[in-house]
Structure prediction request, 1235 residues.
Amino acid sequence: MSDLFLNRECSWVDFNLRVLAEAENSKVPLLERLKFLAIVSSNLDEFFMVRVALLKRAIRDKALPKGPDILSNTEALKCVLEKVSGLVKRQYDCLDNEVLPSLEKHGLQIIRIKDYTEKDREFLGDFYQNEVLPVLTPLAIDPGHPFPLLASGSLHILFKLKPQELSESTPTDQPGSALHARYFRQADTVLVQMPSGLKRMVRLPSGEGEVRVALLNDIISLFSDRLLGGYTIEGAYAFRVLRDAEMEVDDEADDLISAVEQELKSRRWGPTVRLDLHSSAPDEIKQYLCEQLDITQEEVCPIPSMLDLKSLFELVGMLDMPKLKDEPWQPQQHPALIGDPDLFAVIREQDILLHHPYQSFDPVVNFINSAADDDKTLAIKITLYRVAGNSPIVRALIRAAEKGKQVTVLVELRARFDEEANIVWARRLDRAGAHVIYGVVGYKTHSKVCLVVRREEDGIRRYVHLATGNYNDKTARLYTDLGLLTARPDIGSDVSGFFNVITGYSLPPQWKRISMAPTGLRRRIKMLIEREIQTHSEQTPGFIHAKMNSLIDPDTIKLLYKASQAGVKIKLLVRGMCRLKAGVPGLSENISVYSVIDRFLEHPRIFHFHNGGNDEVYLASADWMERNFDMRLELLFPVLDEGLVKDVLTVLNTGLSDTVKGWKMLPDGSYVRRTDEPGDIRSQEALYKLACDQLKQNERRRRGGFTPRTNPKRQD
Amino acid sequence: MVTKSNKSSRIKGPVAVIDIGSTSVRMRIAEPNGKCWNVIEDLVQPINLGADTFRHGIVRSDTLRAICGILKNFRQVLREFCVDATYVVATSATREASNQELVVDRIRHETGFEVDVLDSVEESRITYHSLLPFLTSNKLCAKAHTLVLDLGGGSTETMVLKGRNLVTAGSRQLGTARLSLTLSENVCADAQSLMDSVIRTVVHSTMDLYLDYPIRSLIVINSLLLHALANEKGVRQMNGGIAVPVDAIETAVRDASLLPVEELTTRFPIRTLDTDLLLPSLLVLQESVHYLKVDEVILPDIEMLQGLLAEVKIKSRGEDPFLAFREQVVRSTRGIMDKFRADIPHATQVTKIALDIFDSMKEFFELNDTDRLLLELAGLLHDIGMYISASSHHKHSAYLIEWAEIAGLNSDNRKVVATIARYHRNTPPRAQHVPYMHFLPEQRVRISKLAAILRVADALDRSHWQRIKTLSTKLSERKLELIAEADGDLMAEQTALVEKSDLFREISGLDISLRRKVQ
Prediction:
């Protein structure tokens, strides 16, 4: 029974192996490879702080595995740690043996201590004295000062000291003075946290066309005698801890804002789940840290070179080397929205499908801006899950509220790792007079929807934007997502009902078009799959094509197996975790699972059901996961316009046939690239070109409207 | 009462109707679009009002606070749409609460909404309004009798229709929330059989009333059943509703009684908080179908809110919805006349004459169209007390009218009609007549005026031979002259007029006379 499913955590590591493969891919520009390496680290950190922490907690509490699983929690953890250790090894192989040496050929170098030139030392000495030393806080550890709690994720340096007699000549008025020295008298260990205000990457003076970079932790180690004057330093060891970050906000708390703030403060201090330590660190240091951090030696991740590869992002941002980056793909305008027409008039005429980041996110911002400035607008309602700092959408909402429009904003405070930004916006909106709702008790609001209610000559009309991605103009340039602008009354009334539900004004109505989690989405998906089984026949073979980020929900997977066994052909494009086993004889031979990893993060959820020839196509904010079905407020909505159905299917089918950046799952759950398959389709590139072509065609057509009239006499 | 932000009688912007029921508060915002309404927003929030009233007899303060909270939220939505007019009503659970007035007052104080507590008769009038479009669009057989059960949480409004016309209407204390409470309070070994017997009793006692009518079809108005049964096997789609065959009901009842509560929402497309109501509702349906021996039940997709919107439209024209319902009220009154074997030619004649006199005296007496309809009904029913005994039959008439089920006639109006009929003969109103003194002074005057007209009209058919064919009137400063075209002798009428015009003369200060029209 339980071997019907792949392990969720292992599947997650597999996904990151696919991301890593892009870093290893020599066809990818070097700086992009560097970025993929950083992404892997960033993903891995979150994975440890959330999923591994959860597993460890389950083991501690002797809880049974959640969901059907062949592995016990302990076995799962073991499997995950093994896989991760392989992944980290490959990641550093790639960095140290491929990417960095190649970058060196292009004049880009990360210089470590042993390779500093005299000039470097001189430069860095000044830099240290002026910028670094003033913000360093050494913490001595002695019997009176036990090992402190260390902030999760930040880099620390442990200095091992050899106590020695003070020399009277040491000056007393600066760090490293006798005053300091007296403080450290009995200590043999000092901890220094890397200052959070400084960049990890420090650019060294270098010649033309050359970029040389030093690491901040190296600089701190190098000049440690200035900090710890009067002592002999036996060794300096950089390390990093990750702590359990799983948030458990008390939903019953009266004031959700302060509850999240509280939780944020405590988050950095959960139990340690991982220690990153350079592999050359001596055993006694490793043992010492393990004891102090209350972890086992197995939880230590030995790092062969630089720690915390997330800071490679800094490097990518620092360099202006276009030839080492992806050729930029400028977001294109939507053909129907050229020349800034009255957006509402356009939407009234036709549904508009936006495909980001191939198409610009501006129309979405415009949509809210126009509503804010429009006299006919009565109300604007929106769910904000992950808002970019200084978001133009929030500014538009504030303006609308100040102009006396009824503005309702649901700010989801429990979007993991984004709470701090969210709280600021929530307060600002509140002050502007908007009706701000801090989430829905018991559920995380994950739907992305905006409603504009206008009073027009012929009555009330609703305009809706429904999307698969958040209202975040920054991520809209990095994540692929679909958004639908529509004035269809049935969808408008459903969305209005949805807002009445989340504002606590009403129970869910009978939906006309949409489905909502947690009340009906699961049932709808179940019904759609079951219907596909029922309508399947030799004459009209059924099929399901679906694209999502994760496929986890056991009931849905079982139903997909059943559909496969009934003969329904199923193609799934699952970017990340997938617990379904594809192509297993007798179980899922009609199911193929693909995954695309390319420059943009694949994010839309598209579901296509053949339905005996009456094809139905849906978009959604939800993956097929228990938490999306049962623990979140999500929306599923149909694409009704025939033309747009075609467009959406192009997106889905292009992704399914990606042989360049596509992967295919084998029956054992592992993934292989599809480069052996015929065809040479890179879906993201193809879709970007499509967006360009659509715009060009439209421009040509528009230009075609102005054919100059030739002299009639010459028409012989 | 319709509270309006601007006084213009035509509705331009959106209007809202709110229904405070026994298990939920609902609001619908709609805007007029020609003859129909475009629904803009539908909101529903659950409350425990029924549980309070049916168990404790009062609305408890927690519940009242919850209702006010919901209504305040609704206000926010009304602001969003700049709603012009709002009409708020409450039904049986509020009506039956002993602290009804306090509830209405608190709601007004906290939310600013004026709540109309509907009489059950008004409820069925509203239901009928909602049902009409469904009856029309589905061309239900014009000749056959149909029983309509508007199955609510606290009460069931019943109507017998012949084609599109209302034959009779009533209200029963048969409610799904009530039944579900009965069940939860009697946790005994055999809950099922308890429920069966309770439901059988209450359904049979309701149906027995309509034994006289050859009922061929059954319409049940209940949104839970409509949604729960929509996907069942053999269900026939209708225009704005469904028809469910008996077997589908049997299957649904079986599943609903066997499945654990938490699986009901998977088996039926219903909300979790409706699960308690599902089985009682299905059982009522099953029992009704068995009793009437029909092969299917029709579930139209209509709600009280639709009818309320129709009322708002009527009110916005400055009309009394009761008057707009005149045809059905009169038809239903004629049903009562049949029932009590009234002398129909006499009653019709008296009514006709009374209305003629009314029309000439309307301005003099400062009466309105509603008064005219009340007089019409009193005229039709004034003698039905003869069914019990000729002696003191005016008192029997009054009693029968007060308790008769006349569609669209609420209890206040029924009392007025009963009192008018009470004074059609014998002693005129006196200060020692307690029921009469229960009316407010201005109502007493109105009743006396109408009774005065009725007494005169009754005198003019003293012989019960309908001798007067046409009647014209001439009102001068001192006198009302009645000029009749008649067959035969008017002696009896002339004599009766002298005797029965006492009240008229007293109230109007006018003399009254009857003469034959000069040929």
